[in-house]
Amino acid sequence: MTRTKSTIKYGKRSTRTKAERLFAELPQSPLRKPSVAEIDYAVDSITEKLSGIHIQQEVKPLRSSPRKIKKRVPIVDEVLDVSHLANGEVNTKNSTAPAQVDGHAVRPSSPSKEEFREVDVHGENGSIPAYQTSLADPSLRILSWDDVCPAGDQIEKIAEASYAEVYRVTNERGTSVIKVIRLPSPIKPQTKAQVRSKLVDEEPHSEADINGELQISEWLADVPGFVVYKERYLVQGKTSRALLETHQVFQRRMKRKDPGRAQFYPSPSRYLDETKFLAVELGDAGVALEDWDIKGESQLWDIFLLEAIALARAEEVAMFEHRDLHEGNICIRQIKPPSDEKITAGAAKFGHSGLDMTILDYGLSRAEDLSVDFAQPIAYDLERDLSLFTSTHAPQCKVYRQMRSFLLRADRKCLPPEAHQTPYAKGIHGPISWEAYAPYTNVLWLAYLYEYLVSNFRGDANDLARFEACTADMWVYLNPEAGDDVPCFGSAGDVVCFAVEAGWLCEDQLVGSGTSIMEREDSIIVARQECLDGSRGTTRQLRS
């Protein structure tokens, strides 16, 4: 029977301050059930059991580690010192209970100060976690660029991530994505032509930065929607011809798309015998969203909901925030033919496109190990380079400012670029800290994705109109520029709850029938000496 569309209104007008109205309560992770809660969250009973997300095919539920104890650290009230840049004051009174609609509790709200917490950054006795192993570990293979891509294999530069270059390598063993991070090591100086072109060299990165991203990769390895980790190794020495050629092709392509774009990574022609990189080999996740043609209504639904569910699960498993989820860090692939079934008004919207989605690049991310009491969170300190917040060269730059503005103000007001020039500025919670858990940042990136999908849709205009009409109520609470009297989602988990309540997702698609997780894969990269020794499985013919 056709469902009658009705507009759902959340909350009610009150005399509370703007911050209290919009961000009444930070949603707690479903893993930490408060003993005093009496409200029956019908949808939460589903989402707490999420273990696999996809459309069909049966798998066993994935395990997740419950958090035993959560430490609360008192927060000292501080007044945000940006009054000359934004209107209005932020009051920090205690927040009230969630709003009620027709007798049911509603949770599209954003973090309050009481729940916005700092996390202990040291292990027991100040020890460093065991995962932070040295890059000097003798178990790491040391390869040359000719080992990574011998003559006859294919290598293609496909992206530039937060502090890494990304290549796709294909040989008879399969296909892998290689993320290459330059370590502190010598490199040739810029040529006169490179100096004239104002080339900006990406600085080499520390072992601590790299270890953090690798640990997050481990924590999310069993979460559907996140990239598969294969192996890591060191690559040292001068470039190969294939590497140089694909670098040049990539730069020319990017210049055509964005003539004002700067080149941040040095040309491989400048590599010396001593130039070192850490290479992280990942499963091939498909095509970057920025290169994918979005042509059908089912693709709009699946890309958005797949990302929302993946982020919601990662919030539950590791208190995860991605913090850099633009169209270059989302990969799409067609894993089966699209369904012939037409999306109707009263039917589920999810699972018709045959697409799979994978989230990449945790260089700016935040997460922690919920199986360890008072675990040290992993979080890249974005205060180290404020140019991320003052830049205006790309649409996603505004999302970086929205994230930092939220940490400073605890509301949706986005401060302008000139307000982000003081590192560790004081907000209403004291000096800004990126170790704090604020899943509202995931909501900001979901809003960015929604607008990207709508703006870059290349299909039938009627399909787009139906999608926008059906999601209009959701966008009211997702829109980061909504009015002061409009509540908003506080986490990706809240967005998934809304989708379930709206009937866009079925319970079977969340807790039962399948998963988009990619299978474990072995490395496809074999050194010449290993080929000679036959020490890594099937040998490949050596090429001169």
UniProtKB/TrEMBL annotation:
Keyword Kinase recorded: yes
EC number annotated for this UniProt entry: 2.7.11.1
Keyword ATP-binding: yes
GO biological process: intracellular signal transduction; mitotic cell cycle
EC top class named in words: transferase
Region (Disordered): 93-114
Domain annotation Serine/threonine-protein kinase haspin C-terminal: ranges: 386-494
Record's keyword terms, sorted: ATP-binding, Kinase, Nucleotide-binding, Serine/threonine-protein kinase, Transferase
Reaction(s) this enzyme catalyzes, per UniProt: L-threonyl-[protein] + ATP = O-phospho-L-threonyl-[protein] + ADP + H(+); L-seryl-[protein] + ATP = O-phospho-L-seryl-[protein] + ADP + H(+)
Gene Ontology cellular-component terms listed: cytoplasm; nucleus
Protein name: non-specific serine/threonine protein kinase
Organism the protein comes from: Claviceps pazoutovae
